[in-house]
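Pasting as-is:
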Amino acid sequence: MNEKSPIQVTNDPFASVRIPEFRNLMLGRFTFIMSLRMMGTLVAWWVYELTRDPFAIGLVGLSEVIPAVATALYAGHVVDLSEKKWLLLRGVFFYGCAAGTLLFLSTPYSRSELSPHHIAVAIYGVIFCTGIIRAFTGPTFSAMLASIVPRHYLQNATTWSQGSWLSASVTGHAMAGFLIWKLGTTGTLITICSLIVIAFLVLTRLKPKPSSQLTGEKKTWESVTEGLRFVFRTKELLAAFSLDMFAVLFGGAVAMVPVFAKDILEVGPLGFGWLNAAIDIGAICSVILLTIFPLKKNQGKKLMLSVVGFGLCIILFALSDWFALSFAALLIAGVLDGISVVVRGTIMQLKTPDHMRGRVSSVGSMFINSSNELGQFESGLAARIMGVRPSVIFGGCMTLVVVFITWLKAPTLRKFEY
């Protein structure tokens, strides 16, 4: 692909959805991400129940981010070098094995043989393994997207892809809370394992996607670092990734939602499910609107302003003692986050050459994993040092500081349009 070719954007909101293989990819991704988000929600609640320590929730994020970031660059090299369909299927299969291990840990047998401390340590071990798996599956999904739809459908396909991801995320978050309430930990994990099997079966219907010959001609280290160099040369992409990383790193209020639900708002697992889903509900509403009415200009500036609003909503959430207000704050934060997700994802798809999509997606996953999982650890550590509520207020304020610095130091992103 010639990355300097003019960018064409279709005005048909359903253009990419009319491609059957794109629909299969989105359905498989939806089911897989829903199971993944259900597992993340369940593990946070489960670990807090076992330990009653907010810092233990932070350790879940640290357990996942270390292997995810450590293997990300090599994973991108493997994605570009491999046949992508079977690489993706292997990742989903191994994730199913991880879910099965958690299911075993939740059984009465494990509870009778192992102490809560030992079960928590085993959970951290499983999450460490899922961090490695996600380092490969995330970039593979992204790389396959561009090989299925024409270039002039990429903005539309990216919006649908983000919408699918966010829909799966909100469904997974909400369902996990409801299922914990109704079925308990073991019943929820049985549901998660079933969803992973369904995702695997749907993804078998994709066509094979060959490797990039350009990658195969390079030495491994040269190939691994090429994606990193490309991102650092592409100023708009680097600024968008960095803004997202630091904003979510400090604004990760969702990591403390189990504590707010159980100890501050006292709404139990049902309210926990709704609070955990609130940001994603707002984000999917935003993505639906952006699919029908795509942003026409000043996308970079709107990205930055949306992150400002996100930070303000996080501060409001921290100050609230009323469930409805807390839910509304997270919901609006999600609407604003949806704008950020779509703009950032579109920049990545439009700026990346085809033969580097796996590696650039992996670099992006390093930023994303750093912001989400490392942000979860930061939130747990800050909660231990400052207390839960002050730590979330601090995070929201730091998000505003990050946007202010980015506004001054990254004029290419502020002025970016597509």
